[in-house]
Design goal:
The protein has 311 residues and is of the alpha/beta class. It contains eight helices and 19 strands.
Length: 311
C-alpha cells in the first residue's frame, strides 16, 4: 500500500494552499485528492474580483486565483488525483477511494487535512416541487451553468435566497443578458452590502416573502410569491427559471465509519484538529459558505502547522 507524508482531501482554495504551505516547508510526498475533474473547487464558480488578497496582496477573480494556486502547487512537486472520490477514512489514517483509472484503491497517510468543503443539500426547507418542472436550479448549479458552460438557466429568472451568492448570481445574469424579475428574500430589508452588489443593475428585491407555488407545463412558467406580513396579496410572476438557495453542509460523508466526532453535521474541532490525532481540517468544511473568501487563509495556516509537526 502506497504511503504519503500528507494527504489533503479537497482541491479548493484551502486544500491547495495547505499543500503549498507544506511543500514550501520542504515536506515531500504530498497528495491532494479531488472528486471533481478540475482543481480549484468553488473558486471556479465565482468570477467576482474578491479572492486571494491575503495571499497575493491584491484581489482577483476566483478562476484566476485557482489557476495561480494550481500552478504553484504543481511547480512545488505537489501530487494530485482528480476524478477521485474518497469512500472512507479510518482512524489509522488509511484512505479508501475510487476513480476511473485505478478502480477502488487504498493508501495510507502520516497526516491528513480535510479540506473537502461544503455541498448543497436539500433539507426540506424548500416547499415547492423541485423535480416536477425543468428550469428550477440550486444557486451553485446556476453559477456552474453560467461560469463553466457559458449557458443561462433562463431568460426571465426569479431567485430566492438571502445570501451574497444569490445577489452575485443575479448581477451576473443581468450582465449575460437575462432579465431578473426578482430576488425573493425572507428578510424584512436588504443590508447595504447586498444592496451594493446589485446597485444600478435594475434588480427588484421582494422582501419579507417566499415562493410558495410554481406552475407550468414541462418547464416552469410562473411562481406565486407570498408576503409574510399578510398586508399584501400574493402575486404571480411569470418566469422561465427559478433559482433556489438550499442547505449548504460540510462534505463529510466519507467520515461515517471513523470515530471522528461529528455534532449535527459539523466536525468537532480544536485549533483545526479533529478528535483523531494527525487528522486536521480547514476551510469551508468548518466555516461554511461565509468562509469562502478566506478559506485559503485557513488552509495555508493549517499546512504550516502540520508541516512543523513533521520536521
Amino acid at each position: 500500500m502506497k504511503e504519503y507524508n500528507l494527504v489533503i482531501i479537497g482541491a479548493g482554495a484551502s486544500g491547495l494552499l495547505a499543500g503549498i504551505a507544506a511543500l514550501e516547508e520542504n515536506i515531500e510526498n504530498v497528495l491532494i485528492i479531488e472528486q471533481e475533474e478540475d482543481l480549484g473547487g468553488n473558486l471556479n464558480l465565482f468570477i467576482n474580483n474578491d479572492f486571494g488578497e491575503f495571499h497575493l496582496g491584491e484581489k482577483v477573480p476566483g478562476p484566476e486565483f485557482a489557476s495561480i494556486l494550481i500552478t504553484t502547487y504543481i511547480s512545488l512537486n505537489g501530487q494530485f488525483k482528480n476524478n477521485t472520490r474518497v469512500l472512507e477514512i479510518t482512524d489509522n489514517k488509511k484512505i479508501k477511494y475510487v476513480n476511473p483509472y485505478e478502480g477502488e484503491a487504498e493508501i495510507i497517510a502520516n497526516k491528513i487535512i480535510l479540506a473537502s468543503g461544503c455541498r448543497e443539500k436539500y433539507t426540506g426547507n424548500i416547499i415547492v416541487p423541485i423535480h416536477k418542472y425543468t428550469g428550477i436550479f440550486s444557486t451553485a448549479a446556476a453559477h456552474r451553468l453560467v461560469n463553466f458552460q457559458g449557458l443561462l438557466p433562463g431568460r426571465e429568472v426569479i431567485l430566492s435566497g438571502n445570501t451574497m451568492w444569490t445577489y452575485i448570481l443575479a448581477r451576473r445574469l443581468v450582465i449575460e443578458g437575462a432579465k431578473v424579475k426578482g430576488i425573493i428574500t425572507s428578510r424584512e430589508s436588504v443590508n447595504e452590502d447586498l444592496a451594493n452588489i446589485i446597485d444600478e443593475f435594475d434588480v427588484p428585491v421582494i422582501c419579507n416573502s417566499e415562493v410558495v407555488e410554481v406552475g407550468g407545463s414541462e418547464r416552469i412558467e410562473w411562481a406565486r410569491i407570498e408576503n409574510y406580513s399578510g398586508k399584501e396579496e400574493s402575486k404571480i410572476i411569470e418566469c422561465d427559471s427559478l433559482v433556489l438557495a438550499i442547505g449548504y453542509y460540510p462534505e463529510i460523508d466519507y467520515l461515517k465509519n471513523s470515530n471522528i466526532k461529528i455534532n449535527e453535521d459539523s466536525l468537532e474541532i480544536e485549533n483545526y484538529k479533529t478528535s483523531i490525532d494527525d487528522i486536521y481540517c480547514c476551510g469551508t468544511i468548518i466555516n461554511g459558505r461565509n468562509g469562502l473568501f478566506n478559506s485559503g487563509e485557513d488552509g495555508y495556516k493549517v499546512g504550516k502547522i502540520v508541516a512543523s509537526q513533521m520536521k
